[in-house]
Design goal:
Elements lengths: L1 E6 L5 E5 L4 H10 L6 E5 L5 H12 L3 E5 L4 E5 L7 E2 L1 H4 L9 H8 L1 E5 L12 H9 L3 E5 L2 E5 L8 E3 L5 H11 L5 E5 L5 H12 L3 E3 L5 E5 L8 E3 L4 H13 L3 E5 L7 H9 L3 E5 L2 E5 L8 E3 L11 H8 L4 E6 L10 H6 L3 E5 L2 E6 L7 E3 L3 H13 L3 E5 L2 H4 L5 H7 L3 E6 L2
Helix pairs in contact: 1-2, 1-7, 4-6, 5-6, 6-7, 8-10, 8-12, 10-12
């Protein structure tokens, strides 16, 4: 098992290219199931979760070819010959549940293990099943598997989500594109990754409107063609690098992304005292003065993203005064707090609120990553800490950040991957 060793105290500066978004790539890869033709998907990030997705698609009989040198995936939809996503794969990646919608739409049957992934909250699949049942599917859950049937196909209908779930929105969209008739989906997620999925589905011949708003309309079609699509940039990776630069009192530019993808995070960085500038294809954050405290509440898009909560918490250990962070999306997403405290952070938790008092002088220590974004949070803290920080269980990190140590090294960080002792 690997660990990261960070020698703190180096100011980051320069530019870094942002990879394709994991949270956009995964549903788009599963959308290829909908077509009997070949799909070509570009700007795929090199991540553990992408490798897991490849294995899921392979287990379904789909022919896949991942061209590492240009981050392109080719998927042959004509060879689909199975309908089960097994526990061995789904247990490592919650997004595997996204095979339900496209498999039911194309084959009328799907069997998926109850999902695993980061232990940051319950994240039940009930809302996925509710929506698919409204489209005509029936489900049996037993022996740790969800088995769905729609032998006569799916039928368009009106669906209203109890809250704007990203995964349920994606699963439902992929099911609706081949359903008979029209569907209205209300209270949907509005994240850029949802918009990117719609763009991909539309390139396959889907008839969809309303993406980016609270209601999406879908008119079902009889078949889908293969897609040619380039995955949108990763706004969470971009914000992570901007936080890392500010944490070290530096100036970092992220390339290949525009501000519209991540305006909420940029607004909060600006409120904290960073100088933010942007072009149509880049964003720069520059440290100007001692950071100011913030009051942040995580919310569905366009609000502050829960996937940036941990990274901002690390940054706010250097802000002068008391910052408050309320986590409203996942009930168990403060697991990084004890690890930050090991580095010297002053943080108190009360319910779903964390109070961060700063600025503090962080000191290197051995810490343990508990989930994907916690890993990034600990890296950010380690970059500013005196001495060496060792981060264990970095396999979480590899699920969502492509070659992060190489990218940070390019900016001036002293960060090394080594075998854990």
């Amino acid at each position: 098992m690997d660990r990261l060793r960070i020698v703190g105290g180096n100011t980051l500066s320069g530019s870094v290219e942002i990879s394709g978004a994991k949270n956009a790539a995964l549903p788009i890869l599963f959308a290829a199931i909908l077509s009997e033709q070949k799909s070509v998907i570009q700007n795929i990030p090199l991540l553990a979760d992408i490798n897991t997705t490849l294995k899921v698609l392979d287990s379904l009989g789909l022919g896949t070819l991942f061209k590492l040198e240009n981050h392109t995936m080719e998927i042959d939809g004509s060879s689909l010959n199975a309908h089960e996503a097994p526990y061995a794969l789904v247990s490592t990646m919650r997004a595997s549940v996204l095979v339900l919608g496209p498999l039911l739409a194309r084959k009328g049957i799907a069997k998926v293990s109850l999902p695993g992934g980061c232990a940051i909250g319950a994240r039940p699949v009930d809302i996925h099943l509710m929506a698919l049942e409204k489209l005509g599917a029936t489900f049996v859950i037993e022996n740790g598997y969800i088995e769905g049937h729609a032998p006569n196909g799916l039928v368009g209908t009106k669906i209203t989500f109890p809250f704007p779930s990203v995964g349920a929105t994606e699963n439902t969209l992929m099911a609706c594109v081949l359903a008979k008739g029209k569907s209205e989906i209300h209270n949907v997620a509005r994240e850029p990754e949802i918009v990117d999925l719609v763009v991909a589905l539309r390139s396959m011949g889907a008839k969809i409107s309303g993406e980016g708003s609270e209601t999406i309309l879908v008119e079902g079609v009889s078949s889908m063609k293969g897609m040619i699509h380039s995955v949108a940039p990763d706004r969470i990776e971009a914000a992570t690098f901007l936080c890392a630069g500010l944490m070290t009192k530096g100036k970092v530019t992220v390339e290949g992304i525009s501000a519209e993808f991540m305006q909420s995070a940029l607004d909060f960085l600006s409120l904290a005292g960073a100088k933010i500038s942007s072009t149509s294809n880049s964003i720069t954050a520059e440290y100007m003065k001692e950071l100011s405290p913030l009051t942040i509440t995580t919310e569905p898009f366009p609000g502050f993203p829960t996937d940036m909560q941990a990274q901002f918490m690390a940054l706010l250990t250097q802000a002068k005064g008391e910052s408050k962070i309320s986590e409203t999306i996942f009930e168990n997403r403060f697991m990084h707090v004890p690890e930050l405290i090991r580095l010297g952070a002053k943080i108190k938790i009360k319910g779903n609120e964390a109070v961060v008092t700063g600025p503090v002088s962080l000191t290197g220590a051995t810490v343990m990553a508990t989930d994907l974004r916690a890993s990034a949070c600990l890296i950010i803290a380690g970059l500013a800490a005196k001495g060496e920080t060792f981060i264990k269980r970095v396999y979480h990190l590899d699920r969502g950040y492509e070659q992060i140590e190489q990218k940070l090294s390019k900016l001036g960080a002293k960060i090394y991957r080594e075998k854990d002792k």
